[in-house]
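Quick start: what a row looks like.
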Amino acid sequence: MADDILHIKDSYYFEVPRFLWPSHRKSASEFPSWMVRLDDDYQQWESTRFEQTLQELGVSADQIAEAKEAWKKWTHESHSNSSWPMDAWLDRHFSELTDKAKAWAKKKAPQEKDVVSVYLSNHPEEPLAWINELYKDPAKLQKWKAAQVAADSKETLDGYFAQSPGAKWDSAKIEAYNKSLNGKIFIPQPFGTLKNAYEPASGICISRYMLIELAVALLVFYLFRWLAGKMSTGEAPKGKLWNALEGMVTFVRNQVVVPAMGEHDADKYMPFFWTLFTFILGCNLAGMIPWVGAPTSVIGTTGTLAIFVFLLGLYLGVKQFGLLGYLKNICPSLGLPSYLAIFIVPLLWVIEAASLLIKHFILAMRLLANMVAGHSVLLGIMGMAFGAHALTMHSGSWSALAIISLLGTTALSFLELFVAFLQAYIFTFLAALFVGSAIHHH
C-alpha cells in the first residue's frame, strides 16, 4: 500500500523503500545544494558574509551582533523556524514590523505616510529599529537585495566548499544526512532551484504531482487516440479495453452530461467532460499506487480544474447571450413589478454572482477534501499499530491491534477505490451542471 502521507503533501522527490534507493554520498559537495544551504555550518558561514554587507551599508557592529543573536534565538524557538537564513529572517522581521506599524497607525496616526518611521519614533524600545533605515533607502535596499541574490548563486556555494572549514563534514554528519535521503529519488530541476524538498526558491520547479499529472494526461491522450481509431472502423467493440473505454464514454454521456445539460448540448461538449472525468479519475487512482500519490489531494490541482470549468461556463455563456445577456442571465427572472424589481433584482444579482464563485470554490474543495480525508483516516489507523506509542504495548495486544489495523486499512483501501470513481463522477456532473446553467436561460 502507498505511504499515506505522500497523498497529503506534494514534494520534489519520489519516495520508495530505502533499500531500493540508498544514498552513498561521501562529502558535502555531493549532497543537493539546497540541503547544504540548510546546514547550520553553511548558514553560519553565510551569515558572516551578510555581516560584511551590512557593515558596508552603514550598520554598526553592535547592531549586527544584536540582529545575529536575535536570529539564532528565533531559529531555536520552534522546529518550523529552524534552517531560516539570516537574510530571510531579516526580511520577515521587517515585514512583521511594517504590519505592526500599519495596525498602530490605523488608530493613532491615520494621516501619516511613513508609518514605520512614525511608529518607531513612538516606540524607541522596538528591537532592530535600524532595519527600517536599510529598507526605506532605495540605494541600500538595492545593494542588500543584490547580496541576497548572490548568496543563492553556484559561485557562493563553490566558495563555501573551497573556503570554509565547516564544509569538511565529518563522517557522523554525512551518515545522518545519507540516512535522511535513503529512499528519496529527487527530481532534476533544470528550470528552477529548491528552498527545500517541499518548497521552490526560484524559477519553475518540477514537483512529483506535476509528473504524475503529465503521465495521466499522456495516458488519457493515447487512450483517446487509440479508441478513436478503433471506433472509426465501424466495427463492433472487441476486447476488454475497447469495451471498457466505450462503456465509460457511454456512461459519462448518458448518466452525467445529458442529465446535466440536455440531449442537444451533450454531444457538443462531451469531449471536454469526458477528458475531465478520465483525467480526475486517473489522478485519483494514482493515489492507490504505492509510492506515487494523488495529485487531486492538493488545492493547486483541484483549484485549477474548477477555474477551467468556471472559464468555460463564462466563455460559452458570453458567446451564447453576449456579455450583458450573460450577466442578466445570472439572476433568474422573477416577474416582479418594476417598483419591487428595482430594489430586489440588484441585490439578488449580487447574491447570485457571489454564489457562482462560491459554487466553483466548493467544487474544488469537495474533491480535495474527499481525497485527503480518506488517506488521513488510513494514516491514523496504521498509526495505531505502527506509531511510536505502539512500542510500549504488550506483544499480544500489539499483535491484535496490528491485525485489526491491517484489516481496517484493507477495507478502507477498497472504499478509497470506490471514492476515486465517485469523486470523478461528482466533479464532472457538477461541472456539466454549472456549464449547462451558463448556456441556458434560467
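That is the whole record. Residues 24-167 form one domain. The CA atoms of residues 317 and 323 lie 8 Å apart.
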